[in-house]
Amino acid sequence: MVSQSEKPPxxxxxxxxxxxxxxPAGGRPTFQGGLVVREPVPTLFERxxxxxxxxxxxxxxxxxxxxxxxxxxxxxxxxxxxxVQQIEAVGVASLGIVFVSSVFIxxxxxxxxxxxxxxxxxxxxxxxxxxxxxxxEMAPTMTAVIxxxxxxxxxxxxxxxxxxxxxxxxxxxxxxxxxxxxxxxRLVASTFVMxxxxxxxxxxxxxxxxxxxxxxFGIPASFFFRSALGSVSMMDFxxxxxxxxxxxxxxxxxxxxxxxxxxxGTAGVGASTTRAVVAIxxxxxxxxxFLTKAVIVFWP
Length: 300
Fold this sequence. Notes:
Blueprint: E1 29-32, E2 35-38, H1 44-73, H2 80-90, H3 95-118, H4 126-164, H5 167-173, H6 178-216, H7 221-231, H8 234-241, H9 244-260, H10 265-298
Antiparallel strand pairs: 1-2
Helix pairs in contact: 1-6, 2-6, 3-4, 3-6, 4-6, 4-7, 4-8, 4-9, 4-10, 6-7, 6-9, 9-10
């Protein structure tokens, strides 16, 4: 009879053996053959490659979404009511932020250029520089960035809420096309509204600069107005205005795309909204560079 003290110790089945099979450091733990094996941590180059591939995938999905929305949008019945509602939500509701941002950007530019040009005795060139800057770049691009953040965040949040509550799947189950019902009205509204908002921003920005130049630097408003009109040609105005429909299309497509792929409940909606604002701002600046180069090459 074996005493209690002479009994062999109980055998414990362990999931890892540090002495014989040490797992590699770092990485996510996985179980293989009863042993804990950690996946190797990806290198910086591998993470960069994954990011590039993910970007290419998103660009492809955006292209497919845009083509599908345009094809579906021109099929009957036409979504007139939804388009008008989106124009009101995108354009009319954005007039306040366009007014405030454009006027104060014009005021800041007037102060900066007047102070800078006064050092070289060229204050009379202030209206020309401000008018050209606003017509070619500031009015279309800054308006797209500021308004695009608001519009894109709203679209991403709205579409994300519909995605996590399975309303988009319900639209498909009822036999309707989500690209036609949801994406196409927003795409048309953004493309149509952005040129109008850019034109309003140009007028308000030059007006704010003219007010500061007259009241603070002694440049008469009449001289400012004549000099600004004399320096800006139709080509300068159109070179900035032609960018705005493309900016509007990018805003709508990116906002809707990031909203429709939202997962993870309310936390996912918040993450998609943040990603939409960042992605729209970066996309506008990248598109602005290539569009500016194209305008200079084809319309010098």
